[in-house]
Design goal:
The protein is an alpha/beta fold and 359 residues long. The chain has one domain: TIM Barrel. It contains 15 helices and nine strands. It has an eight-stranded parallel beta barrel with strand order 1-2-3-4-5-6-8-9, surrounded by six helices. Pathway: Glycan degradation; xylan degradation. One of its GO terms (molecular function) is endo-1,4-beta-xylanase activity.
Length: 359
């Protein structure tokens, strides 16, 4: 058993991670490439567990839970062993007024995870977006904002104890410079250790992460993240992992993902692929494009599978029906492993094959 798995097993009373024996046998079915592409032959979470990963998971949102066909897939432990609320745990939803905490949306998804034996990822404590007006429209002094950050992080991590947490979300620009946010402009870089210490005080057993996009491969942004991790670890700041979001474009996936993940791990943290999708820049996709997307998913998942302390992979929702991509990148889309009709795409089998690299 990998050493990183001990935390999750010790915390099992809260996380309720199923044992490998509770899942269907991973080696009693043929390789996905050898069967009809429309037949689900290996559950993605089954494949992840067979590769000694903790989970394969997905983001979801409260409004989607009313879709019965979608929910049936989401609830299947063979497919998904982890859930991330896309919105329900963000600041706007959890503390709409100062000191007034509303946990209902997050609780709904947390209960779904608990009931079906899935790992829950808290997302997120401190981000520059999804903030209530009482935060954004106030001119704060550094001591005042310090208190705000500490109170918020402490209360939401305390409420959802025993979980993995994206404590800090997206602190850098793509060129590796610090993103000039309310937090940075008022507190400089100190908001990061402030939030991490508050989260650790709230829950000594939580796994605390910094989460960022465009750090899938090496480059300026990944270099800045590694420096931050190194500095925090040297200073004794509680930090357990780095979330590599992996929002990618078909045909443009970095070639050095495994090396990059290994460089993070060498700093004394675990890593996870936290928000995976691979979008087409233009639509509709061709058959060749769908095959390239399959290869891209296999490359990313295979890199995680090859790194012992890459603990799992999460897609940023599993179906094009609920993907965030079209609303953010007009004209782009079809980024998920299931299409908008909830049918598996070739990308599904790319994920299976990526995990099978480890077996």
């Amino acid at each position: 058993m990998p050493s990183w798995a001990l935390f999750y097993l010790l915390a099992g009373a809260i996380l309720q991670v199923p044992s490998a024996s509770a899942l269907p046998p991973p080696h009693t079915v043929p390789n996905a490439r050898d069967v009809n592409e429309n037949a689900v032959v290996v559950g993605l979470n089954v494949a992840a567990r067979a590769a000694d990963k903790l989970y394969f998971g997905t983001a979801t949102d409260n409004s989607e839970l009313n879709d019965t066909q979608y929910f049936a897939l989401l609830d299947d432990i063979r497919l998904f062993g982890q859930l991330t609320p896309r919105k329900g745990m963000k600041w706007l939803e959890t503390e709409p007024e100062r000191g007034v905490f509303t946990f209902a949306q997050g609780d709904q998804i947390a209960e779904l995870a608990r009931r079906s034996g899935k790992v829950l990822r808290g997302h997120n404590c401190v981000w520059y977006n999804s903030l209530p007006t009482w935060v954004t429209n106030t001119t704060w002094t550094a001591p005042e904002l310090t208190e705000v950050v500490q109170e918020h992080c402490f209360n939401i991590v305390k409420h959802w104890q025993g979980q993995i947490w994206d404590v800090i979300n997206e602190p850098f620009n793509d060129d590796g410079t610090w993103r000039e946010t309310l937090w940075y402009n008022t507190l400089n870089t100190t908001y990061i250790p402030l939030a991490l210490h508050a989260a650790r005080q709230a829950d000594p057993h939580a796994k605390l992460y910094i989460n960022e996009y465009n750090i899938t491969g090496t480059g300026a942004k990944a270099t800045s993240m590694k420096k931050l991790v190194r500095d925090l670890k040297r200073a004794g700041v509680p930090l357990d992992g780095v979330g590599v979001q992996a929002h990618e474009i078909v045909g443009e996936v970095p070639s050095d993902i495994q090396r990059n993940l290994e460089e993070f791990v060498a700093l004394g943290v675990e890593v996870a692929i936290t928000e995976l999708d691979v979008r087409f820049f233009t639509l509709p996709p061709t058959e060749a494009g769908l095959e390239q997307q399959r290869k891209d998913y296999e490359t990313i998942v295979g890199a995680c599978a090859a790194v012992e302390k890459c603990v799992g992979v999460t897609v940023w929702d599993f179906t094009d029906k609920y993907s965030w991509i079209p609303g953010t990148f007009p004209g782009s889309g079809d980024a998920c492993p299931w299409d908008e009709n909830l049918k598996e795409k070739p990308a599904y089998y790319g994920i299976v094959d990526g995990f099978e690299r480890r077996q």
